[in-house]
Amino acid sequence: MATPATPAKKAAAPKKAPAKKPAAKAAPKAAPKAKAAASAPHPVRDQISATADTIKSEATRRAKELREEAAALASTASKGAREAATKGKDKAAETVGSLAKMLEDSATTVDNKFGKQYGDYARSAATTVAGLASTLEEKDLDELANATRDFVKKSPAVAVGAAAVIGFVLARMLKSGGGKDEA
Q1: 74-to-62, 68, 85, 86 alpha-carbon distances in Å
Q2: pLDDT digits over 40-96, tens only?
Q3: What number is the average pLDDT over the span 114-142?
Q4: Can you tell me the distance from the alpha carbon of 89 to that of 101, in angstroms, rounded to the nearest whole number?
Q5: Helix (H) or strand (E) holding 109
Q6: Measuring CA to CA, which residue among 120, 102, 101 is closest to residue 110?
C-alpha cells in the first residue's frame, strides 16, 4: 500500500524578539554635586592653597638672597686670594732676586776656591735667576699662569723635575727656618 501523502510542513519561522522600549537617558547624579562642591567655598582648602603660595614665594625670595650672598662671598674670596697671590708673587720675586745677588757675590769665592770655570757657572746661574726674578716682577698673575701652563704642556718632564726641586728647596728652607725659632 501506498503511504498517503502528507502535506509539507511549513518551515518554522524564527521568532523575533519583542521590540524594546527606548530607554530614557538618565542624567548623572554625581556631576551636579561635584560642581556644587567645587564652587562652594572650602576654608581649609583655601587656607592650604594660600599657605602653599606663601611658602613658594618666600622660598623663591630666600633662594635669591642666598644666591646673591654666595656671589658676594665668592667675589670677596676671589679678591682676597688674588691679593694674597700677588703678595706671594712679589715676595717670591724678592727672594729670587736675593738668591741671584747671593750667587753673583759668591762667584768670586768660587773662582778662588774651585777655578774660573766654576765661577762662570755661578755667574751664569746668577744671571738666569736674576732673569727669573725680573720676569716675576714684571708679569701679572694671569701672564705667569699662562706661561707656566704653556711650559708644562711643552715640557712635562722638566716641569715635574722642577716641581720636585722647588719642593725640596722649600722644604729645606722651612725646616731650617723652624730650627732658628726653636734655638
Answers
A1: 18, 10, 16, 18
A2: 678 888 899 999 999 999 999 999 999 999 999 999 999 999 999 889 888 888 988
A3: 87
A4: 18
A5: helix 43-114
A6: 120
Pick the closest to residue 142 from 66, 89, 68 (CA basis): 89
Residues found in the chain: 183
Nearest to 85 by CA among 162, 174, 145: 145
- What does each C-alpha distance from 112 to 5, 102, 105, 116 come to in angstroms? 161, 16, 12, 7
Would you report the helix, strand and coil content of the chain in percent, each value rounded to 5?
A: 80, 0, 20
- Tell me, what's the pLDDT at 39? 60
If you ran DSSP here, which 8-state letter would residue 29 be given?
Answer: S
CB 85 within 8 A of CB 69: no
Domain boundaries, the chain: 52-138, 141-183
Q: Can you give the pTM of this predicted structure?
A: 0.49
Whether 144 has a pLDDT exceeding 80, the answer reads yes
HSE toward the beta carbon, residue 57, CA cutoff 13 A: 6
